[in-house]
Amino acid sequence: MAKSEKGVPVKQIARERIEILFSLVHDKQDNPELADRYVSLAREISMRQRLRLSKQQKRSFCRSCGAHFVPGRNLRVRVQHGKVIYTCQECGNVVRIPVRKNTNQVR
Questions:
Q1: Percentage helix, strand, coil, to 5, in the chain?
Q2: Handedness of CA 82, 84, 87, 93 (dihedral sign)
Q3: What residues does 68 pair with on adjacent strands?
Q4: What is the mean pLDDT of the chain?
């Protein structure tokens, strides 16, 4: 096994670049092609370095077509039977996210 070089680990650099790309995606919502490209680059980096995306990052794009979600423009959001339903308007992919009840409520 090769020795690692001194300095910043590669996975940390990859995480920083993914964060930068997702922050740029939110700035480029008026240009959907550029936003989709940034999402695909972030996904490629995470797969290459075997990094998991955060829940917020995972839910900000379509897994099927790779489109960045902008509610009202290319994403339909519905709440039904204890689930939040995301429907991509680009490809028609449906994602159902269960809603958990908060058991730590103060009465």
A1: 35, 20, 45
A2: negative
A3: 61
A4: 90
The helix/strand/coil state of 10 is helix
Distance of CA 26 to the CA centre of its chain: 11
Nearest to 36 by CA among 1, 68, 82, 3: 68
Please, which residues have CB within 8 angstroms of residue 64's CB and are 6 or more apart in sequence?
A: 88, 91, 93
Tokens 């680990």 belong to residue: 9
The pLDDT tens digits for 49-77 are 999 999 999 999 999 999 999 999 999 99
In the structure encoding, which two tokens stand for residue 16, read together? 């920083």
Pure H helices in the chain: 10-27, 32-48, 55-58
